[in-house]
Amino acid sequence: MPGYISHYINGKLVQGRPDHTSAIYNPATGEELRKVFLAGSSEVNQAVASATTALQSWSQTPALQRARILFRFKAILEANLDKLAAIVTEEHGKTLSDAKGSCMRGLEVVEFACGIPHLLKGEFSENVGKGIDSWAIRQPLGVCAGITPFNFPVMIGLWMFPMAIACGNTFILKPSERDPSASLMLAQWMKEAGLPDGVLNVVQGDKNTVDLLLNHPGIAAISFVGSTAVAQSIYTKASSTYKRVQALGGAKNHMLVMPDADLDMVVDSLIGSAYGSAGERCMAISVAVAIDKVADKLVEKLAPRVRSLKIGPGTDPDVEMGPLISGQHHQKVTSYIEGGIKEGAKLVVDGRGVKLQGYEKGYFMGGSLFDHVQPHMRLYQDEIFGPVLAVVRVPSYEQGVELINNHPYGNGTAIFTRDGDTARDFANRIKIGMVGINVPIPVPMAFHSFGGWKQSLYGDHHMHGMEGVRFYTKLKTMTGRWPTGIRQGADFNIPTLR
Ligand code: NAD
Question: By the number of CB atoms within 10 A of the CB, which of 50, 183, 334, 465 ranks highest?
């Protein structure tokens, strides 16, 4: 149906009920672009049935053949990167160059997954006992499902399904209902690359669709990325039905600025990491922790840069910061700014009230900068997910480390310093999953793994890299001998070597 984003089940576009949809908006204009069907139990059951049927032969397909399909998918992605970035910008709002970069980071996971024959190689020990060998292999889990957030409509799906499928699983992707169009392009390109029908399915939907996936007995594992409240609930619900779960949540990432840091480098890094993608990144820096000595100078250098951010539609190549995702989110970020003022923080740059000619209905907001933010303030405690940077002043390095370690989120952090001992001590003692040393957004490459600590991740495995292989496979260990070998008669004791 034109104007509607469908599901993708068993290699075909499947429409839902026209009375059960959600609207998709262009955040730069505020106009409705199209609608997306929201899956109910009929579509979820169809997707699970199709993934279950496909699993039988896909799990037995040699890893080399699975990899060859991913190689072809990678080539299709490369050829269509601009098209993909354009749909991300249209539905999400981020700048085209940033959208393209995020698609590229997703493509790198496909590149990593192409090495699956090597990554799945097992272990073998000869002669663990006389004439007895032992070996271990990794086998697929079954039908896996992935639920993704709005802020990376391509990259986060690509963190999940290429790894799951490479490992021999079949997959059901449930993208964010706010920017779901890219998911259909990815699924159709996988088919074009040679993927058998049913191995990758997409069900569009919202919370209700997610609940159907969580409760479905035919699904073995859930990968989730989104806000912490939802991650907690998904982890609890899915593990109560004995599914394997990885649920990545929200963040409040701090950058510790030492007095010996290169301040111009710090300012450039903060401007990009706090305001890029309008702060709608789980690895955005939202708190600059400045040692007292350097704080005045830092704020003085930051303020004019924040005031002069170029704001506009993501399609304009000169723009540095696009709109927020929705009017509702714009209102939420605004209320955090109002709350911060009431709580007594000093608003140095006020990003509210931005209006752009020709884009009056867009969800634009300028960059905001707060100084003298205190740890008890909501402005400090909560994830705002907008272009708002809070400066917290601390007297010493030790207090900076304590502040970061006490925050309930633990996704990313960074230290800026010229001192190797300080940097090394920070990397060792900080209770955060991803740490940057003079690098503001330390997003691990595809061949490492992505994940936070504390309330930023529920479950035992990070995403992609070897953690992805471990999450999407079960370990099986065999111990064997041949009847032609040594016989010892019945043994009533646990075998030991003497
Ligand atoms: P969200 O939690 O609102 O939604 C994420 C997904 O869950 C969507 O597909 C949505 O349809 C579904 N969902 C929403 N509410 C649900 C509910 N009550 N029950 C079940 N499913 C539900 O997140 P969002 O607003 O789309 O994305 C922004 C959030 O994601 C931020 O908190 C950000 O920090 C986080 N995020 C985290 C990472 C990470 O790697 N840790 C990466 C990107 C984004």
Answer: 183
Ligand 1 centre to CA of 149 (Å) is 4
Average pLDDT, integer, range 319-331? 98
Which residue has the CA at smallest separation from atom 21 of ligand 1? 207
Residue 491 located in a structural domain: no
Q: In this structure, what token pair is assigned to residue 157?
A: 């799906």
- Using the mean position of ligand 1's atoms as its centre, give its distance from the Cα of residue 16 in Å: 23
Residue 356: which of 301, 315, 384 has the closest Cα?
Answer: 315
Asked if 237 and 260 sit in the same domain, the reply is no
The DSSP call for residue 377 is S
Whether residue 469 sits in one domain with residue 387? no
Do residues 237 and 353 share a domain?
Answer: no
Tell me what the pLDDT averaged over the chain comes to. 97
Dihedral angle of Cα 281, 111, 71, 157, to the nearest 10 degrees: -20
**Pocket probe mutation, ligand 1, options 91, 224, 227, max atoms within 8 Å of Cβ:** 227
Domain membership of residue 9 as a residue range: 4-249+456-478
Q: Assess whether 82 and 194 both reside in one domain.
A: yes
3-state secondary structure of 281: coil
Do 241 and 329 belong to one domain? no
Q: Is 282 a catalytic residue?
A: yes
- Residue for token pair 């080399």: 64
For the chain, the domain total comes to 2
CB under 6 Å to ligand 1: residues?
147-152, 174, 176-177, 206-207, 210, 225-227, 230, 233, 248-251, 282, 383, 385, 411, 452, 456
Residues 166 and 26 in one domain: yes
Phi, psi (rounded to 5 degrees) for 489: 80, -175
The pLDDT tens digits for 238-253 are 999 999 999 999 999 9
